[in-house]
C-alpha cells in the first residue's frame, strides 16, 4: 500500500525532519578530513541530531544497526558501519547517509564527500551519480510513470560508462522509514504505478565505476562492489506536489534545485 501525505500539518512535519537531515550533512562537512575515524564522524552527527536538533537518529538500532549514521568509503556501496579503525585518508571518497526521526515522521538523505583532494576519476564518478539524481528529480510530477525515474538514471549513468547497482533501491518514507513503493534506479516493470500528489519517497542512485554487482560482508550490513571498484551515492527525500516536486532534504548548496 502506498501512503499519501496530503495533510498540511503532516507535510510541514516532513519539511522539518527533512531539513534536519540536510543540516546534519552541512554540519559534518568541515570534519571530513584525513585522519578522522568514521566513529568520530558518527559521534559528531549523533550529538548534533540529538542535542542540537532534538531529534532521533533513525539508523540507530534499526533492525540491529549499531550506529547513528552510515559511512561508506571508496568501494563500499552502502550501509558501512562507523568504527574506530576506518581512518579517512587523502583522496578517499565517503558517503555519509543520515536518517532522522522527529514528531512521528522520518527523512533520509546522503551525499558524497571528498577527503583532501580527489583524483579526477573519483570526482567524475561522484558528479555523474549526483547529476543522475538531479535528472530524476527534475522529472517528478503527478502522472509520471514510476519506471521513468530508473530509466532516466540508468541511461545517464551508462552513457557515462558507469553502472547502476540493482540490488538496492529508494523507498517510500513518512511515518515509517521504509514504505512502498520501491524506487528502482534502472528501467524495469513498475506494475503500472504512476506518481500522485502526496507521495513521498527517496531517490538514491548507487553508481559503480566498474561492475554493478555487489557483495554483502560478514557484518551483515556493509555492501561492497564485487570487483573493488569505487562507488558513489546521493540521496534525497522528495514530495510529489500538484505540478512537480519539493526536495525535503535540500541543502543550502543546492538552492538551484528549487528552480527545476
From TrEMBL:
Residues annotated as domain Peptidase M24: 12-242
Cofactor(s) the record lists: Co(2+); Zn(2+); Mn(2+); Fe(2+)
GO biological process: proteolysis
Alphabetical UniProt keywords: Aminopeptidase, Hydrolase, Metal-binding, Protease
GO molecular function, a single term: initiator methionyl aminopeptidase activity
Biological role: Removes the N-terminal methionine from nascent proteins. The N-terminal methionine is often cleaved when the second residue in the primary sequence is small and uncharged (Met-Ala-, Cys, Gly, Pro, Ser, Thr, or Val). Requires deformylation of the N(alpha)-formylated initiator methionine before it can be hydrolyzed.
Name of the protein this chain belongs to: Methionine aminopeptidase
Organism whose genome encodes this protein: Candidatus Riesia pediculischaeffi
Gene (UniProt): map
Amino acid at each position: 500500500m502506498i501512503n499519501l501525505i496530503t495533510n498540511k500539518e503532516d507535510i510541514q512535519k516532513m519539511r522539518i525532519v527533512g531539513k534536519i537531515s540536510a543540516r546534519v550533512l552541512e554540519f559534518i562537512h568541515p570534519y571530513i578530513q584525513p585522519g578522522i575515524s568514521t566513529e568520530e564522524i558518527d559521534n559528531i552527527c549523533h550529538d548534533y541530531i540529538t542535542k542540537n536538533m532534538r531529534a532521533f537518529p533513525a539508523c540507530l538500532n534499526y533492525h540491529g544497526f549499531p550506529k547513528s549514521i552510515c559511512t561508506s568509503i571508496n568501494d563500499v556501496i552502502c550501509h558501512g558501519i562507523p568504527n574506530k579503525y576506518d581512518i579517512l585518508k587523502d583522496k578517499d571518497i565517503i558517503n555519509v547517509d543520515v536518517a532522522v526521526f522527529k514528531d512521528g515522521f522520518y527523512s533520509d538523505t546522503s551525499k558524497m564527500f571528498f577527503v583532501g583532494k580527489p583524483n579526477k576519476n573519483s570526482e567524475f564518478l561522484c558528479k555523474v551519480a549526483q547529476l543522475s539524481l538531479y535528472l530524476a528529480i527534475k522529472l517528478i510530477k503527478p502522472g509520471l510513470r514510476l519506471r521513468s525515474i530508473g530509466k532516466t538514471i540508468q541511461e545517464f549513468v551508462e552513457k557515462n560508462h558507469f553502472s547502476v547497482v540493482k540490488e538496492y533501491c529508494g523507498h517510500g518514507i513518512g511515518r515509517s522509514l521504509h514504505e512502498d513503493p520501491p524506487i528502482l534506479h534502472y528501467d524495469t516493470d513498475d506494475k503500472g504505478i504512476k506518481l500522485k500528489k502526496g507521495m513521498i519517497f527517496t531517490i538514491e542512485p548507487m553508481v559503480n565505476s566498474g561492475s554493478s554487482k555487489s557483495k554483502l560482508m560478514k557484518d551483515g550490513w556493509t555492501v561492497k562492489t564485487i570487483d573493488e571498484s569505487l562507488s558513489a551515492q546521493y540521496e534525497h527525500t522528495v514530495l510529489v506536489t500538484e505540478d512537480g516536486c519539493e526536495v525535503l532534504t535540500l541543502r543550502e548548496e543546492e538552492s538551484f534545485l528549487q528552480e527545476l
